[in-house]
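Worked example 4.2. Below are the chains of a multi-component assembly; read each line carefully before continuing.
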Amino acid sequence: MVEHKIIFTGTMSAGKTTAIQAVSEIPAVSTDVTNSDPRLGKEKTTVALDYGEVSLGEHERLRLYGTPGQERFNFMWKILAKGALGLIILIDHSIEDPLSDLQLYLTNFSELIKNTACVVGISKMNESKAPSLESYIDVLQRNAVVCPVIPVDVREKQQVLLILDLLLTQLEGRA
Amino acid sequence: MNTDRITFSYAVIYANPRDAILLKSVIALYNMKEKAQWRPTDPLTADLVVLGDGIAQDVAEREILANLKPSQVVLSLGQPIRATSQRMLNVDQPLKAGDVVTRLEQAEAFLRRVSDVNSNGYREATSGETVPYSARVRLIRWPNAALLRKHWDYLRMATILVNHPMSIPELAERSRESEALCSSFLTDVIRSGHGECLDKPEPPVKKSVDSPHGFKSLLQRVRIKLGLLGS
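Applying the procedure described above to all two chains together yields the following structure tokens:
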């Protein structure tokens, strides 16, 4: 079996699990437990990872991995990133300091971003005005990263597909 | 690259007192770094004109921007103002020091290119000029929403341009769009400061011959499976 993978990373509650479920052919496996952090506003949160699959043929498949969002699991990020086709960073715009979170993922996945492709999706932008989309682009520029940054609602499958389309378009330039 | 400190001038007009004080403080701190020095002067001669929110957009465009030189950079505080002949930047309010510093760095980069202080061979398209047909354009910053909204295909073209400087014909071939649209897009990218023209020729992009097990074929299979054909 030939296997490829795309990584979804980002803030807790940004929608990684939902995004994978939107495109996975199998019911996405999600290692959720009851959330003990009252600040999150959600009942469950991912503590290990999410997993989905897309079969590309009889002997080939694309694995979709969602990393746990908490920084204490960052040891898993490097493991998961190895050999990945590309990276999707989802940021929850409604949290207290989303720009710092974006910086965190840009730092921890810098090698993967440099060698493959990345798309940054900002979820829940309609829930608060600041920071602006330009501020996210500023963070990318400070990290010498140029990649698509778009608002996204991962509950809409078409928007998840748009993110993947943008990722594939970049990768095609490297082919 | 020339690393001598260069002095640029700026002027602040129609800004509210809070913004004016913050700008002055940030510029004072910026001047302590190993970058350009910024000195205040009058708006008609300043390299950078900072336009506050104390004037209506249409009045600003008619009365202020129409009288500025094409080489002047304009930084608008708050609502972006449509500009046709100047380099336009904008920053959200309430102003944050980090955002202002980023805009100063952008203004400095533009002005260095215009004045040929940067010796790396980059030049920008000036007012009324379109990108030369064979010149490659490199994206230096992801385009803002205002630029991407100009045409529904700009998002895809910007994505194609990520990490791959392209000329008009190269972008047209890759995107399967008309050269006229690609020319408009690349010109908009340059004029808005999101890209730069590369004067120095780069080696032609080698077209890879893909096998059924190659990377290109893999991406095609992913597209087919996800229903993302036609891109």
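Take a moment to check your reading of the output against the notes. The CA atoms of residues 67 and 79 of chain A lie 10 Å apart. Chain A has a mean pLDDT of 88.
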